[in-house]
Design brief:
With about 575 residues, this protein is of the alpha/beta class. Helix content is about 45%, strand content about 10%. The protein has helices spanning about 20-25, 40-50, 55, 70, 75-105, 115-120, 145-155, 170-185, 230-250, 265-280, 300, 305-310, 320-330, 350-365, 385-405, 420-430, 450, 465-480, 495-510, 525-540, 545-550, 550-565, 575; strands at about 60, 140-145, 160-165, 190-195, 200, 210, 220-225, 230, 255-260, 290-295, 315-320, 370-375, 410-415, 485-490, 490-495.
Length: about 575
């Protein structure tokens, strides 16, 4: 087999997974080689099940009929169970570490880590990108349903990120059928004929496929390993890896993914060790797996270089996950009155803390030879209203012009109709070049204070902003409970990240009795009244039958629970998961 680069995965403590301290600090080490040849799949089952009967140690409660049985084979189940046993305890330890750090941030601000100064000040670069990831100027993202996958791959974007996370409601049908859809997409056999007579087929030049598994904080309750739910991210990635990695390699590509919600370089180390172990177990060439990390939490923004360093042989760069980043700032500093933010629509990419975060991300990526990918354009063209569409396209063009001008190598859109607009702005800057990694942005100075500068001149909390948060939050949660995780609301594509902003802002405002621009203080009682009024408005718009059938009442009850209860819920999708 091909040589393995970097650390080898281990079962022991997180800090004992590499053979020498030199390996962790980026100095030259001799890469260990594989010790076994390619296994037949029947051998994998015996090796990975650790001598146990898989049926006795893994329980799957979700439906396994039809093509789902092709995904949930004994070998694939054994593989994902093995990953959970080896890396699950470290995942739980890192989640505990998140909580401890959050408590520290109640009294002290995040800082660049003193113990990793050597990594930031030494010379190293990530592994060069594979050929089919050299040019990522426009990426489209969306859930893993069959129609979306076909349309996104045909959209003209260079990359499609199939999303098991924020834009997919994690019903069993969605996540397991999503694996079937990806299996077909990798082999370019995916197609769909609908009941209304429409036909969807894959074009001749589909986008490069990437997959985003769910975050470390989530579980897949339909799969129990040794009596406990498996990590949702391990479940998503294990099945995709097991069935598709070898096929992708045979096609001259690799297994490319996005990693969401990371909060530290130690979490990146966990993923890197899992990649190393999976490549070894499946006899894949070293570096087959490439990951782009979404920098969408405040703690991760202070460890961007360290995160790249941990994943350097499996890195595909960093992405500015703007919406979750805003949510993370609110969540991290929710108890601080000096960090209260104004209406969501006033938190633009030009405000100080967002500007500092994105510019520092570009500087760090390019200094280390990695791609910097910009944020999501959430506007949705309204085909019934040309004026709305014209305004949306103008805003997308301005946003992408700024990103390309700042040095980003690519960007995200949420709708196929936005691809051409985003592409034009990056074409204007890149021309025939695949990226602009050589633009080092040495004018940007790493600045801890700038990352926390939440001043927004003229920013205010308004009644309209409060009502918008309540209405959008309830409408999105109702959609999520019905099984749709990406919903067009008010000409914007809403997903779990934007819903998190809505509910966390209200919690922050209520908790601090924040004043609106008319002097009114926001209390739980006021929020309850606004919720009742917004529900009446939705009922008059859609009719009581649709409201009852569409799970709006459950959504309103859940929203109240996460938006102004005494205790802050770390993620709204965790209590929401109990209702699907």
């Amino acid at each position: 087999g091909a040589p393995m680069l970097g650390r080898r995965a281990g079962v022991g403590a997180p800090d004992r997974v590499c053979k020498t301290r030199a390996a962790r600090c980026g100095r030259a080490v001799t890469p260990p080689r594989r010790t076994h040849a390619a296994r037949r799949r029947t051998d994998i089952l015996q090796a990975l099940s650790n001598g146990r009967h898989v049926s006795d140690s893994v329980a799957i409660t979700g439906d396994q009929s039809g093509r789902r049985a092709e995904i949930l084979t004994p070998e694939a189940v054994a593989f994902m169970a093995d990953l959970e046993r080896r890396f699950g305890p470290r995942r739980l330890h890192l989640l505990e570490r998140r909580a401890e750090r959050r408590r520290r941030h109640e009294s002290e601000a995040p800082r660049f880590l003193a113990e990793t100064r050597g990594i930031r000040e030494s010379s190293w670069t990530v592994r060069p990108p594979p050929t089919d990831l050299l040019d990522r100027r426009v990426e489209i993202t969306g859930p893993v349903d069959r129609k979306m996958i076909i349309n996104a791959l045909n959209s003209g974007a260079r990359v499609f990120m199939a999303d098991f996370e924020d834009s997919t409601s994690p019903t069993w049908d969605n996540v397991i059928d999503g694996q079937v859809n990806l299996f077909d997409a990798v082999r370019r056999t995916i197609w769909l004929d609908t009941d209304d007579g429409k036909s969807y087929r894959l074009g001749n030049r589909p986008a490069v496929l990437m997959v985003r598994p769910r975050g470390l904080h989530l579980v897949e309750r339909h799969v129990l390993v040794d009596g406990a739910p498996i990590s949702a991210g391990f479940f998503d990635l294990a099945l995709y890896l097991f069935h598709n990695a070898a096929e992708l390699v045979s096609r001259g590509s690799g297994l490319y993914c996005y990693l969401p919600k990371l909060e530290s370089h130690l979490e990146a180390r966990l993923w890197n060790d899992l990649f190393l172990y999976a490549e070894d177990a499946l006899t894949l060439p070293g570096g087959t797996i490439r990951a782009t990390v979404l920098i969408e939490t405040i703690p991760a923004a202070f460890e961007m270089e360290e995160i790249l360093h941990e994943l350097r042989d499996h890195s595909a760069g960093l992405n500015a996950g703007r919406w979750d980043y805003i949510f993370s700032l609110i969540k991290t500093f929710r108890d601080r009155a000096d960090m209260v933010l104004p209406d969501r629509r006033q938190i633009t990419m030009s405000v100080p803390f967002m500007r500092a975060y994105t510019e520092q991300l570009v500087r760090i990526c390019h200094r280390r030879g990695a791609h910097a990918i910009g944020g999501m354009a959430a506007f949705v063209p309204n085909r019934r209203d040309p004026e709305v569409t014209e305004r949306a396209l103008a805003e997308v063009a301005a946003d992408k012009r700024r990103e390309a001008g700042d040095g980003f190598d690519g960007t995200w859109v949420a709708h196929p109709d936005l691809v051409a607009t985003a592409m034009a702005e990056f074409d204007a800057v890149l021309g025939d070049r695949p990226h602009q990694v050589d633009r080092l942005r040495e004018d940007v100075v790493p600045d801890e204070a700038a990352l926390l500068d939440v001043r927004i001149p003229g920013g205010a909390i308004t009644e309209a902003g409060l009502r918008l948060n309540v209405s959008v939050g309830v409408q999105y949660l109702a959609s999520w409970l019905r099984g749709t995780g990406a919903a067009a609301i008010n000409d914007l594509m809403e997903d779990a990240a934007t819903a998190e902003i809505s509910r966390s802002q209200i919690w922050q405002w209520v908790h601090h009795r924040a004043g609106m621009d008319d002097g009114t203080r926001i209390t739980a009682e006021l929020a309850e009244r606004v919720l009742a009024e917004e529900m009446d408005r939705l009922r008059s718009q859609h009719g009581s039958e649709l409201i009852d059938r569409g799970r709006f009442n459950e959504a309103a009850e859940l929203f109240a629970r996460v938006a102004w209860a005494d205790k802050f819920s770390e993620f709204l999708t965790i209590p929401a998961y109990e209702l699907i």
